[in-house]
């Protein structure tokens, strides 16, 4: 008997999905548990396994098209079976009125293919002219900054990455730079520079499901939650010394962000009102501490969660965050990895940012924006000396957290980071 296959709900925030690839065509046999399609959600691209067995009779959504959760994407049944009446009946039902489609039991995240770009040329003039060489996209240690996918494509196409200027964050070379690259007729040894643009042109790229969700959720947060901001300077001299000592003897290398996560968890335990959520007619004060850690990827931003962070050692936090970072870059994070946060940390210090404000990551009541550590003149015992100062800014939902509550949290955080021996004494490293 023919059965309808609907767009599954693969995460708690998913409202629609894009069929990025069909692995089966009409007439193909399908077994239960067999992967039939790749579905792009708001978080990642996942493999969709069939819960039915039979022949694929109908495909209702073409590759690259987006449809809401519960919309009909296919029909599976017996070969040659008439499914038109079933399709008409089911199509007449409004999407979303039926029982929610089951969340996929097991998903495997795969690398998302970029959607085709549309280049529109308004006026044709002379071809771009390459100019003299300038520094290529390199990191502070002299290594080329390029995504793993860009490196692979460059190797496959025989392209020298040193001849490409990255358009990604921080000058990083990404896939589009490889796609757009055209070898010049420059003599060997010359490095390509930015070209002189002599024609008006632009490109239009379809908005990804992740970017749609980022836009929707952050807009809802910014315009519904009354934000206010508290900024504090923290002397990181002792934290720097403690981290250096730990990394000298420990196999697990600790980052400053790991220290901030650990200190924030300890500060939340002493200031539980910050570890809360606004629910409209009530406020939820969470007894558990799940800290979301914002990680930037090429498609946007994802926030995996360090669960029960106050119970974990620095080493455990460091391993977990590093694992999240690797999974995020390779699109292998699972829905359970990014759900359940009660507080969020966004750190741009490694990007050279001194200070910034962040938009609250709902349902949290607060988010901590962390800047870089900067050598700054400070007064110590009546003398001006050089100190290592880090600025943090707490964005607060004023419906839940008042100024005094947020300030007390920052004072506690400052105390732990300026006295890391006390912080580390709470649990073994």
What does this structure look like?
Strand 4 (35-40) and strand 5 form a beta hairpin. This protein has helices spanning 84-92, 148-157, 175-180, 209-224, 237-249, 256-270, 314-329, 403-418, 420-424, and strands spanning 3-6, 16-22, 29-30, 35-40, 45-49, 54-59, 66-68, 72-77, 109-110, 118-121, 201-204, 227-235, 276-278, 283-285, 291-293, 295-297, 300-302, 305-306, 343-347, 366-380, 383-397. The strands form six sheets. It has a six-stranded mixed beta sheet. It has a five-stranded antiparallel beta sheet with strand order 7-2-4-5-9, with no helix packed on it. The protein is an alpha+beta fold. The chain folds into three domains: 3-110, Beta Barrel (OB fold (Dihydrolipoamide Acetyltransferase, E2P)), CATH 2.40.50.100; 116-205, Dihydrolipoamide Transferase (Irregular); 209-424, Chloramphenicol acetyltransferase-like domain (Chloramphenicol Acetyltransferase, 2-Layer Sandwich), CATH 3.30.559.
